[in-house]
Amino acid sequence: MDNVNEVYQDGALTIALSGHVDTNNAPQVEQAVNGMLEAHPKDSVIIDMEKLEYISSAGLRIILRVRKAHPELRIINVSSEIYDILEMTGFTEMITVEKAYKRVSVEGCETIGEGSNGKVYRLDAETIIKVYKNPDSLPDIKRERELARKAFVLGIPTAIPYGVVKVGDSYGSVFELLSAQSFSKLIVKEPENADKYIGIYVDLLKKIHGTELKKGEMPDMKEVTVGRTEFLKDYLPSETYEKLHSLISDVPDNNHMLHGDYHTNNVMLQNGEVLLIDMDTLCLGDPIFEFASIYLGYLGFSEIDHNVTMSFLGLPYETCRYIWDETLRLYFGTEDKDLLASIEKKAIIVGQLRLLRRTIKRLGNTEEGKRQIELSRKHLIELVPQVDSLSLA
Length: 393
Fold this sequence. Notes:
This protein is an alpha+beta fold and 393 residues long. It has 3 domains: 4-99, 2-Layer Sandwich (Transcription Regulator spoIIAA); 110-176, Phosphorylase Kinase, domain 1 (2-Layer Sandwich); 181-386, Aminoglycoside 3'-phosphotransferase, Chain: A, domain 2, CATH 3.90.1200.10. Helices cover 46% and strands 21% of the residues. The protein contains 14 helices and 15 strands. It has helices at residues 26-39, 57-69, 80-88, 91-94, 138-153, 183-189, 194-209, 221-231, 238-249, 287-298, 308-313, 317-332, 337-362, 367-383; strands spanning 4-9, 12-21, 44-55, 74-78, 96-99, 110-114, 118-124, 127-132, 163-167, 170-176, 181-182, 257-258, 267-270, 273-276, 283-284. The protein has a 5-stranded mixed β-sheet with strand order 1-2-3-4-5. Strands 6-7-8-10-9 form a 5-stranded antiparallel β-sheet, with no helix packed on it. It has a 3-stranded antiparallel β-sheet with strand order 11-13-14. It is elongated and about 80 Å long. It starts with a strand and ends in a 10-residue tail after the last helix. The mean pLDDT is 92.
């Protein structure tokens, strides 16, 4: 039947309704739907209303009968007009209903930054959009919005997404950031003011780390890192692995906020106001986990190929090295080179732990992967025996 089509994938039956479903065609629509359900009796069911223009009470009764047989029924891609009908009749209170999202193209848009979970573009003069790499990212978007709101309420100057759009097969979060520029671009544009921007950047980092949370309010980075360490058991010499695992396990519990992906692309200036973006990595823990991530962003990811910093941050490797050194000096308030070197060593250990696992999972036995795996192993085998504690708190 033209009004009803099906797609079956990964244990889920999607029934797509289109046009009008009303008294005139409801019996035929229900017959077609029942035939699809009988062919997949034990599978989850989704009703896709992207092309549905109208549904009457007769059509709604079909959905009720489907829900009775499949209590976990979801309805997706619902237009505003159809959503109003479902809301007015109480369907949104008993069935998961997901609105359709406006479609947006980022072709030709300026890339502001890219992380492991998504890529950030400037859509126009007033708007940026973070496009998630995972096509099933709606739960991630909801989670990031909740984390951003928590941070904002706690006094962190955060850009909160105000909408969700569809970009190709993926989803994007939309932020209104009028004339905002990342600190990376400001440092390139105004090299004479680099120290000023680095100072502001470090002050914000201290503010984040000074914000106390309740246990369980955000992910615990120590727990995450213990899991990453255990993944490496078969990839490191036993002596190195056991010492590394002990060092991570012994990092004191800490309920203070971490950003988790703190670099100059994720800090922006808008009309003199500093704003933090890309909040899906917000977590809590000892600052060592933050500095491990910062080290990777400026130095670790680009150790083999220094050109990586240009593609990632739009900054030369030498500038990234300077930002890293100044960040450590200003944050810890010391000129003691030995102390700063010991802090850097700890950050390298935790950073290389993460990078080794990431490379094994993503690049495996490729030539690029083998090269990075060997380098990360070398760092860990050399540095782990040299430290007795990783905590920076």
